[in-house]
Amino acid sequence: MIVYGKQVFFYILEKHKEKINEIYLAKECQKADFAKIIKSSKKIKKLDFKTAQSLARGGNHQGFLMDIKEFEFSAFEDLKEKDFIVILYNISDVGNIGAIVRSAYALGVDGVILAAKSVAIDGVIRSSSGAALDMKIVLNDDILTMINELKQKGFYIYASASGGDDIHTIKVKEKKVLIMGSEGFGIAPKILKKSDKCVGIKMHNDFDSLNVSAAFAILCDRMKNG
Question: Which among 50, 72, 69 has a CA at the least distance from the CA of 61?
Answer without folding.
Answer: 50
